[in-house]
Queue: 2 jobs
Job 1
Amino acid sequence: MKICSNAHTHTTFCDGKSTPEEQVLSAISKGFVSLGITGHAFTAFDLSYCMKLEEYPAYLGELERLKKLYGDRLDLVIGMEQDLYRVISPVDFQLPPSASKEELPIRYRIASVHYIRDEQNDRYYEVDLSADELEACKNEMFGGDGLKMAERFYQESVRNAFEGQGDILGHFDLIRKLNDGGRFFDEDSPEYQRIALSALEEAVKAGIPFEVNTAGYRNGKKNQPYLTIWMLRKLAELKAPVIINSDCHVADQLDFQFDRAVELLRELGFKSVLRLQGKGPLFEECPLDERLEPGKK
């Protein structure tokens, strides 16, 4: 089957390399039926990758323009990716604090964990920035114990599932990204797998779709998506919903390794995946035993 959609897409409004229009045109050229643009929401403690609050009107205005321009060829859906430490609120959009989620000018949110916070020193360590940053986190917060660092990350990932107000859980095991060769913790150890599995099983109870993020195929030597294969197998056993996303920053990679991810999920026992849609319910369920041709809804 062909997914023909991506719900996790970054542009030049944040840390993406392609403009929104370039992403839209790429989606159309690939026969997509829908595309979700998800700028990184504002985080005051780290301005290196996200949009500023004053940029929100331009972001929304450009996406509305593109919806009108290309709406007969593609369902363009406005979203945002928000970090656990910066959950979007109505006041970000100059709405009264009492405004409901449905009143926000965005249709959906990807809730992700990118940081481990040292509350005593009010420092945020980014888990996917650099090995040096993660090494500092391990040493300064956890006395050199990488397993304890991973455990804290998964504790935050569970909190994100219940408190992050997201419609999709982004890259649940992102802590693996810089762990090539087991530099920080042994991913094959019973201790690590117990921690990760416990967190996964708890997060499933929130009822939010998990992202199968194919950017994992770019990062690291293990060449697996986020989530890793054994965690995906557990999600299949639990019949938890999943959505395949590329976390795209460059327009020609919108469907990066999608076919590979589909085959993997089928092999692991998944019967269906979710796909973003522009009208009606946010997601449609796509059976993995049916072939969805490009352009077919």
Job 2
Amino acid sequence: MSVRPTGEQFTLSGAGAEVTVVEVGGGLRSYRAGGRELLDGYGERDLPDAGRGQLLAPWPNRIRDGRYTWDGEEHQLPLSEPDVANAIHGLVRFVPWSVIARSSDTVALGYLLYPQPGYPFVLRLQVAYELSAAGLRVSTTATNEGDVPLPYGEGHHPYLAAGAGLLVDGCSLVAPGGTRLETDERSIPTGSVPVEGTPYDLRAGRVVGDLAIDHAFTDLERDGDGRAWVRLTAPDGRGAAVWQDEGYPHLQLFTGDVLPGPRRRRGLAVEPMTCPPNALQTGEDVRRLEPGESTTASWGITPLG
């Protein structure tokens, strides 16, 4: 059998659900529960397009010109979004991760990121997926294995499915952001505005309709457990929710308007982020990890209806 583009496939099952996690990038390929696909994922013979299901580290989203300064030293990252001269979504999306632990309903994968041009640091990453009756929980831990402090940010890029044959247009969306980041033509933030009184105020919920979203949000409303929730519900009352703990103070939503025809507006990207776009350059919410220091953040997906 030929090698799959995303390497080995790890299937988790339990509570009437099935999840597939992939070796390449340590990402999330599919999640099926209650007889329906919760994610607009991709096939085992496909590459994950548009960040689909991927883990984004050591930064999420974009870095303008791929340049940043850390402790007085300038760094130049590869421009992985060359059309607009950005570095996008980190350095670990297309590398093979190693299995740390595995059971019928859990898998933990790890990757050691060695120093390279633009990111001359030693960063150990671990991502753990756990499937239960409450849904899927994903926890990511980063550890500085080097001898100098390093900058760190992280995110994830699942697409919630609108439903078989449906677009997000007819779905109801509830999202917690109180502030939206405005961006330029390169998707780099230029400022922030309150969502109050705008179409992007999704806190009480609304039908998506023709609203096009490709924005980061912050000032997230949270429940008593410190979780911020995004809920996407199809007209039949079924859907899925993404929650993120306080390790993720930022959230990107994307309705997929610029994706090719079959993918366009078929799912909603819900991206928990530890820092906003262009964070390595601005320094906003970038985590400074001292040698030997670790940090962990968690998010998850819960079926609705």
